[in-house]
Amino acid sequence: MPIANFHSEYEAFQAFVHPESSERILIFRGESGSGKTTLVKRCLGALPKSSHCVPIQLRASAVTIAEVFSRSATILGQGRFSRFGKELEALQGSSEIRVAKNQLIGFNNRITVAMQSEDTIEREYRRSTLTDAWFDDIKASSSQVLIALDTYEHATMELREWIEGPFLSRVAQVGQIRALVAGQAVPDHNNIEWGGFSSSYSLLGVFRAEEWMPVVTQLSRRIPAADPLSWLKGVCDALGGRPKDIMQVIEGLPILEASR
Amino acid sequence: MSRDLLARLREVEGAEEREIIVLSLSLERLDPRVREAVLAVAVPHWFDQDLVSALIPVGEIDASWVISQLASLSFVEAIPARGFGVHERSRTLILADLWHTRRELFLDISRRAAACFLRRAEDGEAQWMLSEAIYHLLVADPPAGLAELQTISEMWYGEGAYNNLETMLQLAHEHVNAGRLVGQAGGWVLYWEALLDGRQSRFESAELKLRSVEESAGNDERLISEAQSARRYVEWLQRSPEQEFISHLTPIERMAKYIGRRRGLNADQIEECASYVKKSLAEDDYHLFRDFRGYSSLGTYLHVVIDRLINTYSARLVQDGRPSGEESTLVRDETVHARVALDSLPVSIDGANLDGSSVHVGRSDAALPQGFGEKAGEEELLPLVANGLRPDERLLEMEMQIQREEISRKLHIVMSRLSSADRAIISMRVLQGKSYKEIATMVGVSARRVRDRVGTLLTGIRSGLSAQGVTETAVKELF
Q: CB neighbours of B452 closer than 8 A, spacing ≥ 6?
């Protein structure tokens, strides 16, 4: 998918994934349709091959803390999480509910069951134990891991509290991990624990028609107007510079006929 | 066309109208089959090949072709570990349009989506598949959707699976915001959200939601009653258990002595019993106080807790070889566990309590006889003889009934996690008493396989009940 502008955000991302970077957390905030997801995709596409990425779309996918753990194990390999596995087994010993075929359920459900408790203190203990073990496993690895969270505004309250508390605080302290968070609502980068290790960008739309002309060309589209740039400028203004809507308009333009 | 488009965009005011124009433009240029597919896949939050096959009638178009067409659209995005999804803003517009102009189609797709997610949940995929199933069921079949929402909410709340519960409520709330829920479903969604807020120390939000539930509940007395209970619980959560203990010390002691006297304890034993009750209530950082869930007033809760503690105390007297008076009839109940979640018991009790308030406890209509504990005076706190039973015998009978109902409720929760086929097997074997051979004939597998399956299922059910605090003795009695 072509993309217009976002040069500074893209450059910030490249600096952020550099192994020596002191910034471990990158935040993109923008309204719906402002191009966050497209930007995130472009950034992830440019990730060095030596890095591993765990992309998580929070919208529409009912992501829990357990899901973050299980997704990373799926992508990075369960063998990489030996300490986490041991802690999980230990916790399961006291909480696993083996019911019928549910005992054969996947890693995600095992973590979910191990983490749940009616008692607030017990639940907090279980969550901390698994979080610590997970970060220890990440620390033991030589390669970089990027956790990319998109549509953050859809995170559940529990997930949000975990991300903005224990998770990002530890990310700030562990050189092998980076966290990219994008959404209409995002963690407050003034956080005293991890704010100093983060940078935040606001996506305000792409209003300049000049930025969109290369996209029109790339998609082999033709603007049937005497002054294409003015027409496109009018569209960009009318649509508040929202890349998603502008892209839909460009896609709907007539296809450029091949020159003879 | 382009000039027309720009003119149209300039003619209307407001971002949403402009978005509708742009979306219409995008849909108009699609192959009609792809356009219909976009409408179908916009109903669920995300889609993969399995969902596309479920949503679009068999034989109409090939699912993989549909996905390849949809994936190329700029308003369809890849969702890691799920598949694809229609962009949030586009989806909102499509759903609003479908709901108002083609509701039957909306409901039909929702029905199909619910069935698909239910199947996937039963096949052992992640628990949150149930949330997606309920989200669709709430509009496709509102009574069934609400019943499922209640069952699953109770289960997840009881298990402390708050993240799962929050996810489900978040999805259901989407329908609330869009005005797609009928009846009191919206009120129940808000009620569960409030309970969850309370459990997670978001007290202000919980109280606001419960107030809103009570104001909008209309004639739904059950919802009003539950919301009131929940408000008591949220208020309780904000207080320190230690402070509560100290402030109730006098009535606790009075109640302990009264019940002890009714049980025929002598003066020394009554004093010892009162000390035992106070010590037990303070034990483990006031755990019994912290177990209070607000389904009754605190007074009623303490009444039942103290009564059970005295049962345990009496049982110890017998073990020590110093039974007293009428205790011989009471100490047989060795299954009494003072730390059962007493406030969630499925009975109704109308009457006054330690604090003299009138209360409604629990969720069933099995009300206790009128007059139970009507007066605050010590001698009248327990009922007079009724149904040919002495007060202590009635109390014992009530406790046993309470335990039976509690176990049944928890059994229902555990059973609800089984697939319908497994539930049927258990029902045939345990409730209908059919032989393995008879069941095997009915389900079309070998008797040995049925026997193995029943064994596995019963082990699972026992473990599930045990995990919910139901004792092994009680489980064995049941099976």
A: none
